[in-house]
Amino acid sequence: MIQGVPVPDREQRTITDAQWNDAQVIWDFHQMGHEPRPCSAAICLGSHDLGAATFAARQYHAGLFPVLVFSGGNSPTTADLYPRGEAVHFREHALDLGVPDSAILLEPNAGNTGQNITFSRDVLLGAGVEVGSVMLIAMPYMERRAYATCRKVWPEADVVCASDPLDFADYVKSIGDERLVIDTMVGDLQRVIEYPKLGFAIEQEVPDEVLAAYERLLHAGFDSRLFKS
């Protein structure tokens, strides 16, 4: 948490227009704006949002990559939702959407974004896939952190970030929990800011208006997804 931020008001429940505007600023910053293009392979990062697997299947059917890795074990926020692991459930969803089993690789052990990428790289190499470029598919507000992590742990790969092109309001509706989405976006921004200091990601410039929106949302109590250093 940034020094000087007052103790949050944990009792607040109503999301004000100003807070929605701040969340929109952070949402926009998290997205890299990369144009999807053909890549050697794709990695779909596990999460609570099955929509990432749906989008990955669409990108496969569009011919943007020949092989797709689903990566992710379990986390406290997904263990009940995906009891056999994020990657396993995402793979099954992609199979239901017509992605052939021969095009899917499974990485069922990762517990964080760095592991998602490094373990998936090892799975691809083990399968004999030569990777010059990789498409990282994640939740829309995870694009920037995924990019920064990949540039740190796999710097030789040409990285393209992609996510379902929903606007902020539609994404919130698709998840059905507005506070969870805002809390998680704030938590991801904290990681974008702090992880380079810990050696987990490359540093990225965060505009002043994004930092100001972040501080206001922290003050308002949107802090349930912060990591403790």
What can you tell me about this protein's structure?
45% of the residues lie in helices and 10% in strands. Mean pLDDT is 91; it is low at 1-12. By secondary structure, it is of the alpha/beta class. Helix 1 (17-30) packs across helix 7 (178-198) and helix 4 packs across helix 5 (143-153).
Structure described in brief:
It contains eight helices and five strands.
Mean pLDDT across all residues, rounded? Answer: 91
Nearest-angstrom radius of gyration?
A: 17 Å
Fraction in helix: 40-55%
Specify the number of helices: 8
Distance between the termini: 10 Å
How would you describe this structure in keywords?
single chain, alpha/beta, 8 helices
What's the helix and strand layout?
Elements: H1 17-30, E1 41-45, H2 51-61, E2 68-71, H3 86-96, E3 104-107, H4 113-126, E4 133-137, H5 143-153, E5 158-162, H6 168-175, H7 178-198, H8 208-219
Parallel strand pairs: 1-2, 1-4, 2-3, 4-5
Helix pairs in contact: 1-7, 1-8, 2-3, 4-5
